[in-house]
Amino acid sequence: MMRKGTNAGGMRRYNQRLILAAVRRMNGASKAELARMTALSPQAVVRIVDELEEEGLLFQAAKRTGGMGQPATIYRINGKRGYTVGVEVGRGDTTIVLLDFDGDRKAVCRHADSFPSINTVVRHVEHFIDEQLASGNLLNAEVLMGIGIAMPWFLGEWRDELGLSADQADAWRRADVADRLQAGFGWPVFFENDGNAAALAQLLCGAGVDLQDFLAINIGTFVGGGLVLGGRVHQGRHGNAGALASMPVCAAGKSDFLVHRASLYALGQEAAADARLAWIEQCIEALAFAVTSANSLLDLEAVIIDGSLDLSSLETIADGLRSHFSTDAPPDFFAPEIRTGALGAAAGAVGAGLLPLHASFTPDLASLFKKG
Fold it and tell me: What angle do CA 274, 277, 278 make, to 5 degrees?
């Protein structure tokens, strides 16, 4: 049975987080809608919403007319209440975003590096924050809530695929990586696997805001993913659930790993049109195998395809998967909906930026879906 909001006095802070999470996912809601979604009593919702409005976390955005009775007041998140910085450390680039309290992107910066060093990443982040603080338009030190950093847990692995030296790989295996990344930052720092961060972004402000159970597939230098079950990111024992890169697939009649069949490193920067088409076809074939395996185990609502590809290519891959499942799915298979995301290459960085908000103001999101 899914947990819901509680009316117990000792859970005031939890219930505030529950209301904020509901408003964020619904992109604005009335008190009556919030009571229905969270299973809190109408009286509790009125009290909590009024408190959040008084604290400046919510504001009255509009009036909704229709039906019987007085027009309903719609509340939304006050984006100016605070800001976060999200960083995705990738194998070929570093993406940094500035998010407001509502999760909207206010600034984006991308640094293309052949393979980033820790010092390079720290320097990029420090420069980005200094630049935003100096602009004076949005950010000041008092409203910066924290920094989220998303990266593959095994950033230095798959050396042969990227042509890395042993020293480059070993630098990211040391136990003090988090300390070295955090050095010099005067704000709280939150870390997460890049696939989990991208899944969190789809859940809170992307293509999965209306879903409870989905697999988020992110096509980047290496293919990766994250898993959402029951309205929350499922991290697994080691925080690596849904990572996907090492998932076995059968492609062209041979056993392989998904990373070799659906990653952009194998396509190359200047691939000709025919080579690009061939790569997309092999990507569809491998992803169909991986999605069939994942869905047979988890019975998902949807699979979200996003990443560094252009939207047209993402749609081609999504269409290919839909076509596959319409003709070649096993007879006892409930095909998940295939969606394309719109967060693009910034998905992991957006999810990283949501980490400080998620840690401070978001409860177990399974609570937002009450049954019966």
Answer: 90
| Cα–Cα distance for residue pair 35/69, rounded to 1 Å | 17
Q: What tokens were used for 323?
A: 């076509």
Entry pTM = 0.84
* Radius of gyration (C-alpha) of the chain in whole angstroms: 21
Query: What confidence tens digit (pLDDT) does each residue in 154-166 have?
Result: 665 555 555 566 6
* Residue with the larger pLDDT of the pair 47 and 80: 47
Instruction: List pLDDT tens digits, range 23-37.
Output: 988 889 999 999 998
Look at phi and psi of residue 242 and say left if phi exceeds 0, alpha if psi is from -120 to 50, else beta.
left
**Ordered alpha helix ranges (H), the chain:** 12-26, 31-38, 42-54, 118-135, 159-162, 166-171, 177-182, 194-205, 258-261, 273-298, 311-327, 347-361
Is there a contact between 343 and 308 (Cβ–Cβ < 8 Å)?
Answer: no
